[in-house]
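Q: Hi! Curious about what Riboflavin biosynthesis protein RibD looks like structurally. Here's the sequence.
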Amino acid sequence: MTDDERWMGAALALASRGVGRTSPNPSVGCVIVKDGRVVGRGWTQPGGRPHAEAMALAMARDAASGATAYVTLEPCAHRSVRGPACADLLAESGIARVVAAIRDPDPRTDGAGLARLAAAGIETCCNVRAAEARDTMAGFLTRRTQDRPHVTLKLALSLDGGVAMGDGRSQWITGAEARAHTHLERSRHDLILVGAGTLAADTPRLDVRLLGVEDRAPRRVLLSRGLDAPDGWLTVRDPASIAELPGDLLLIEGGAVAAAAFLAAGLVDRLLIYRAPILIGAARTLGDIGLRDLGQAHGRWRLSDRRTLGVDTLEVYGRA
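A: Let's find out. The predicted structure is below.
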């Protein structure tokens, strides 16, 4: 691993701290390095401001002169009522070099941020650990390119593929460790959705019950054409309506009907499969997801992670 890749890894770790809390801005990380030592670091703060670069420069102060800034997204080039352009801040700081993971797809910046830095005599480099940066900013990128939130579908399955008992009850298929991981995932999303059947059967709270991040619960969304949502919930009538939701990261937690509807619509970007070592028997399973033959099922998903959580197994898949 090169020095650029290593320091970008530190910036990526910082970027992960803001995931699910910065919409409509991306969660960006920045590390400023001088003579092999970190002199400034920052990540996008809740609500989108300050930006990562502004936070890192405020920490570095005069030490930024002659240093290298590692940032997970091209520094913004447009001024805002909420703050100056990060490309300008970096140029004024005396930074000697800027390394970005990916370019910003926002047309106000796309390439212009790096060009402005180069025009100021700053050495620039891009596409360092780009795939990881795109994963960290999946919500922001999906909203910009597809005008909808990035969708993660969570499924807790028995060994025989059941998502619930025959009467719809699903508490609990997995054990405590897997459920804790689900709460971590909730804390990293803007929105969480269930169908009317899950709401009626389980009355889920959909909050975050992990020590220290209880305040990061996503906004709750009901998928229903007729049932009124509880107070404080949002409602969508069909999967396509998620484009209207105020957020960039959507987690779908239940149930089988809602999961099938989003899969059939081709609106699932990421799968979290929690598999428990139990057999249910006459269980509810996923419904029709629109496949006409088995050949259509292959080649759609790529395994990106597998881990053991207590007695359960988690598999994470992304679009192939």
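A: A fun detail: The mean pLDDT is 91.
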